[in-house]
Specification:
Layout (H helix, E strand, L loop, with lengths): L2 E2 L13 H8 L12 H12 L1 H14 L3 H28 L6 H8 L5 H38 L12 H18 L4 H29 L6 H6 L12 H7 L2 H6 L5 H4 L7 H28 L5 H5 L9 H14 L3 H34 L6 H4 L9 H15 L1 H4 L1 H8 L1 H18 L17 H18 L16 H18 L9 E2 L4
Parallel strand pairs: 1-2
Keywords: Amino-acid transport, Membrane, Transmembrane, Transmembrane helix, Transport
Subcellular location: Membrane
Membrane topology: Multi-pass membrane protein
């Protein structure tokens, strides 16, 4: 619940600016520059979802666990249930268009007694998930650049340059710094990157969807694309239902990050409508073009064991090897495949840019409410009305998270697993409160689901609960240190630490979102 902390000397021009007036009603004064259109708001979410990035970086997982069927049919299943999550989030966003987004919603919907605790846990799941998202996106890009260099210099089986883990970390660091610099720019420049990211994703998917099947001399049959379940995976799992369930990770991870539209709402014009529409349209369009892109990629998958073989030219990167083979068979050279990989790399880069943007806005809002250590330092904007300090905090945390890759790839994957489950748990919490404690008291905004709001919300909550269980299951048998699924440990760690911090410290002072205007 909102608690007054400080006042302003001059009353805000409420009548002249409906967005400013609504923000003041929610307890905040306008401090970020409100310069984004509905299109720009959509573009940020669409860029961070980036199916070109999500599908490309998790394709190996989908191919190994269930293969084509788990991805092409699984995508449709995941898109349907994710649509319910997105619709429910959009409805809540319309009622509470603030940069805090999820944790602010939980505070408003959980009821007076539980509001501070609900806000605290939701906020920490959200921000840790976002930090992990930036880490996974940018580190995946660093690894992808390494694959491109490897293929360009002869391939793993032809004397190509295989970078050490320290070189990959250096590439990752450079990417992070560039993303920090871009996100230090004024909002009108940042808006351009968001819209360019949206354009690149649409144009890239359109181009590759046409080009890849057209170039291929050997193509998979429709039956193979939609019904083949790969069990030849060297992970000791043969049950097809189990494999298909675990393989849903590709689809679930690929449509993630659409809370960005909520976090950008204080910089968006007509936020009560533009924010929720940004969520819904970005998820809907990503679901459609993502499936088309996935089918096009899978059309050139004809030998799964060969594509996943670490000794192949691409070092086991299935997409890179498939595209390299496709162009080499047609033209005698794999250069065209490398160009396709470069198109994907640009999309991943733009996705990382949008991820830091979302991180920084969430961090700004969370520190504005005093929830983060040294909140007074992160809750600052510069002369260009950019939350400069928290931008570089996001970059720094992402760098520290990636240091785990130097010690253990298993540990790094466990940390990155927080991206999917941590963020979806943060998505589900305010929806859960919407359909339980606030079922009769929720006051919708301009975008609402009417009588279907509660039903759609419950579907979304149950789906996230199911996915949480699925992604905590063992991914290989027999279970050993080398293949142990640390996802429940990582996600459980976030829950344990946030609850422990609450019990030992935060419950004595954190009262939820804090107003900075007189109400």
């Amino acid at each position: 619940m909102a608690v007054s902390r400080r006042s302003v000397e001059v009353e805000l021009p409420v009548a002249a600016d409906p967005d400013r007036a609504r923000l003041q009603q929610l307890g905040y004064k306008q401090e970020l520059k409100r310069g984004l259109s509905a299109l720009a708001n959509f573009a940020f979410s669409f860029s961070i979802i980036s199916v070109l990035a999500g599908v490309t970086t998790t394709y190996n997982t989908g191919l190994r666990y269930g293969g084509p069927a788990s991805m092409t049919l699984g995508w449709i299943v995941v898109a349907s249930f994710n649509g319910c999550v997105a619709l429910s989030m959009a409805e809540i966003c319309s009622a509470y268009p603030t940069s805090g987004g999820l944790y602010y919603w939980s505070a408003q919907l959980a009821g007076k007694e539980w509001a501070p605790f609900a806000s605290w846990v939701t906020g920490w799941f959200n921000i840790v998930g976002q930090w992990a998202c930036t880490t996974s996106v940018d580190f995946s890009l660093a690894q992808f650049i390494q694959v491109i260099i490897l293929l360009s210099t002869g391939g793993a089986n032809g004397g190509g340059y295989l970078a050490s883990k320290y070189v990959v970390l250096a590439i990752y660091s450079a990417i992070l710094i560039i993303h920090g610099l871009i996100n230090s720019l004024p909002i009108h420049w940042l808006s351009w990157f968001g819209q360019f990211g949206a354009f690149w994703n649409v144009a890239g998917v359109f181009s590759l969807t046409i080009l890849i099947p057209a170039i291929a001399k050997e193509r998979a049959t429709m039956e193979f694309i939609f019904t083949h379940c790969n069990t030849d995976n060297s992970v000791g799992i043969s049950n097809k239902v189990y494999m298909l369930a675990v393989g849903l990770l590709t689809s679930q991870y690929s449509v993630l990050g659409y809370d960005t539209s909520a976090h950008m709402s204080e910089e968006t014009k007509n936020a009560e409508w533009s924010g929720p529409m940004g969520i819904v349209t970005s998820v809907a369009l990503s679901s459609i073009i993502g499936w088309v892109y996935l089918v096009a990629l899978t059309s050139v998958v004809t030998n799964i064991p060969d594509l996943l073989d670490p000794s192949n030219a691409a070092g086991g990167n299935a997409i890179a090897q498939a595209l390299y083979n496709t162009f080499h068979m047609r033209f005698g050279s794999g250069v065209g495949g490398i160009v396709c990989l470069a198109i994907m790399a640009v999309a991943i880069f733009l996705c990382g840019t949008a991820s830091v943007t979302s991180n920084s806005r969430m961090g700004y809002a969370f520190s504005r409410d005093g929830a983060m250590p040294l909140s007074h330092l992160w809750y600052r904007v510069n002369k260009q009305e950019v939350p400069f300090n928290v931008v570089w905090l996001s970059v720094s945390v992402a760098f520290v998270m990636a240091l785990t890759s130097l010690g253990s790839q298993v540990a790094f994957q466990a940390m990155v697993s927080i991206t999917t489950l941590g963020m979806y748990i943060a998505y589900a919490l305010p929806i859960f409160f919407r359909v339980t404690t606030a079922r009769k008291t929720f006051v919708p905004g301009p975008f609402h689901l009417g009588k279907y709001g509660v039903v759609v919300g419950w579907i979304g909550v149950i789906w996230v609960a199911l996915v949480t269980v699925l992604f905590c299951l063992p991914v290989a048998y027999p279970v050993a240190v080398e293949n142990f699924n640390y996802t429940p440990v990582a996600v459980g760690g976030v829950l344990l630490l946030s609850v422990a911090a609450w019990v030992l410290h935060a419950r004595f002072w954190f009262q939820g979102p804090v107003t900075n205007v007189d109400t």
